[in-house]
Amino acid sequence: MPTVVLPDQPSLCIPLIVRFKVIATSALPSDFTAESVSLGKNGSVQWEETSSSSETRLTGPTTAEGAARGCRTPVFAEGDALDAIIHVRTSDAEADVRTSVTLYYAW
Q1: What's the topology of domain 15-102?
Q2: What are the sequence ranges of the domains in the chain?
Q3: What pTM was computed for the model?
Q4: Is 67 exposed, middle or buried (0-12, 13-18, 19+ CB in 10 A)?
Q5: pLDDT tens over the chain, length 107 residues
């Protein structure tokens, strides 16, 4: 059943959680952080959220895992091929880690 949201009412947030793992070819510095996650479609970023500091951490010498949480955007549909961009930083450098993902919803 469709939901009608009046202009003075906040829209409903359907959660979107993006879990990620970064695997390096050499040891990651102890100050390595994954700051944000962006999802894009057709070359344009449509969703960007800060990584959850309580869920993002080094899990091994060459591995970091984490999650970003936000509200789903209507631009995405289940099965869409998306570009995922994880912005990472250390005390003396920063970079974007890019990959392709397929969007699936879990209920």
Answers
A1: Immunoglobulin-like (2.60.40)
A2: 15-102
A3: 0.80
A4: middle
A5: 444 444 555 567 888 889 999 999 999 999 999 999 999 998 889 999 999 989 999 999 999 999 999 988 888 888 999 999 999 999 999 999 999 999 887 65
